[in-house]
Amino acid sequence: MVIAVSRLVTKLRLKPPSRTEPRRSERIFVTRRPFGPQLRQLLKPKTCLNRTDIGFRRCLGPLLSAALLLAGCDMSIGHLTGRATDEWTHRYPLSSGGEIRIVNTNGKIEVEPADGPEVEIRAERIARAATDAGARELLPRIDIKEDIGPDRISVQTERMSGIMIGAAFEVRYHVRAPKNAFVNVANTNGQVALTGLAGKVIAHTTNGGVTARGLTGGVEARSTNGIVNIDLASVGSERISAKTTNGAVVVSLPESAKADVTASWTNGGIKVAPELKVEETERSRRRFEGRLNGGGTSIELQTTNGGIRLRPREAAEAEAEDSKTEVKTLKRRH
User: Fold this and answer.
1) Residue 324 forms part of a structural domain
2) Is 62 contained in some domain?
């Protein structure tokens, strides 16, 4: 912090009036800890700039205040080396086609298919603080609310009351759901990952991506800051929607799928793989419409800042295998 202040003073060419030496009260003393009277003297407007530097409009004081404020925030948070965790696993019966609702604030949500009609939810609570003792004290405050019914299961991370300084928490949900269940998940800070589901899927997150593999039902995927990557094992009659604000949208589907595709973007573009038989009906600077194999299910793709990619599932699988091979090769080298 002292170095940063010194550099800022030097950059602004802080000089006393050339006619006389500055009085003792006008001098700036930068010590190891500029607190108390020295800090007040440092931030006095009259010592910020002399009259020969009026072009700067006495800006040093506010800049120093901001720098000190940021430094104070960094010192107060520090490194959260303390950690405490616990977890529980609950199982619930669910009627055919019932809804599974998961709401989280911080942490990842993963959903994969189960073999039977039972829903299994494993929740892992993680608390972080400056010390392990502080983390253990925080852990019981992470509240998870359950609302269970025969045709709807709702599990939600409650928002923690009060102001948290020097502490953080997250909950990681690992869900095994019946394949035909209606999965409805919402996250604030964290990713959403879905695999092998046949029922309708709604997945929303604010800060994080949505990744889905092997879906066969309707999809509504949303993100604000993150990539939306959807892999469809088949395309039925239910609508497919993938949208984000800051990030890319990637949809992989069988070459034989029949769909009406609508895509829009603000800053970006669209790339349609040549293997897909898409008849363009509209293309402009920010919009695309086309019929895949004569048209069919509605597929809507949208982003504000990012690109849109529509590709065959076979190419996506080959690309994934190549990536795995590359990762294994890098691991062997290191």
Assistant:
1) no
2) no
Q: Print the domain residue range for 305.
A: 191-315
**How big is the chain, counted in residues?**
334
3-state secondary structure string across the chain: CHHHHHHHHHHCCCCCCCCCCCCHHHCCCCCCCCCCHHHHHHCCHHHHCCHHHHHHCCCHHHHHHHHHHHHHHHHHHCCCCEEEEEEEEEEEECCCCCEEEEECCECCEEEEEECCCEEEEEEEEEEEECCHHHHHHHHHHCCEEEEECCCEEEEEECCCCCCCCCEEEEEEEEEEEECCCEEEEEEEECCEEEECCCCCEEEEEEECCEEEEEECCCEEEEEEECCEEEEECCCCCCCEEEEEEECCEEEEECCCCCEEEEEEEEEEEEEECCCCCEEEEEECCCEEEEEECCCCEEEEEEEEEEEEEEEEHHHHHHHHHHHHHHHHHHHHHC
Residue 213 structure tokens: 């593999």
158 lies in some domain? no
Total tally of structural domains belonging to the chain: 1
Residue located via tokens 């040093």? 60
Residue 285 lies in a domain: yes
Q: Each residue's pLDDT tens digit in the chain (334 positions)?
A: 444 444 444 444 444 444 444 444 433 333 344 444 444 454 444 433 343 343 434 444 443 444 433 333 333 444 789 999 999 999 999 999 999 999 999 999 999 999 999 999 999 999 999 999 999 999 999 999 999 999 999 999 998 877 778 899 999 999 999 999 999 999 999 999 999 999 999 999 999 999 999 999 999 999 999 999 999 999 999 999 999 999 999 999 999 999 999 999 999 999 999 999 999 999 999 999 999 999 999 999 999 999 999 999 987 776 666 555 555 655 566 5
